[in-house]
Model the fold of this input.
Amino acid sequence: MSTEHRQPEIVIRSMEIDDIAPAYHLGEKLFTLRAFPNLYRIWDEYEIIDFYHDSSESCFSAFAEGNLVGFLLGTVIEKTKKRKYGYLVWTGVEPEYSRLGIASRLFEAFKDLCISKDVVMIIVDTQADNYQAIDFFTGKGFGDAQDHVYLTLDLRKEAAKGDAHGRAT
Ligand SMILES: CC(C)(COP(=O)(O)OP(=O)(O)OC[C@H]1O[C@@H](n2cnc3c(N)ncnc32)[C@H](O)[C@@H]1OP(=O)(O)O)[C@@H](O)C(=O)NCCC(=O)NCCS
Done:
């Protein structure tokens, strides 16, 4: 059923082990090759397992109507005792539940954790054409955008070039 005319109760809590599979599948649904080629390439089950293993206190899940409908994977990087950074690496919300404030509540949970740990700055990154995410983050006060370029080296093309030059593969 569409959420257009209803406001389901949303529960945000720390990520638990049973959330890993549904969060992984939600990420697969969101980070598609067509929409976000680079996010698609680096999203896999190990990504979420590693976050859960290394930084579980900065990973959060959102539930509505008994189902996981959003997640946030972040980490706190301690450069020195006095300089800690929060890094929000992945967040996503089930499209059927978008614009209900779920990502905002996940972000608030992560931000509160960062404040409690004396983090000085939170960093996020995303593809330059991910306008929904950029609107979301700028709405949360993020700014000072800096260019960050993804480059790819397609090894299949490299191998084909090698073949064309008669090199054994
Ligand atoms: C970006 C995303 C996490 C937002 O989730 P959400 O729960 O719908 O966000 P919220 O409801 O908390 O939105 C808060 C504000 O962000 C902005 N925003 C959210 N989605 C937006 C969209 N599609 N277009 C423009 N602005 C958007 C709006 O300002 C919104 O406030 P409003 O609804 O009062 O206008 C979600 O669209 C998503 O999962 N996108 C795909 C995955 C992704 O890009 N993740 C980020 C990079 S890892």
In short: Strands lie at 10-14, 59-64, 67-80, 83-93, 121-124. Residues 31 and 78 are 28 Å apart (CA to CA). Residues 10-164 form a domain with the Aminopeptidase fold (CATH 3.40.630.30). The longest helix spans residues 102-116.
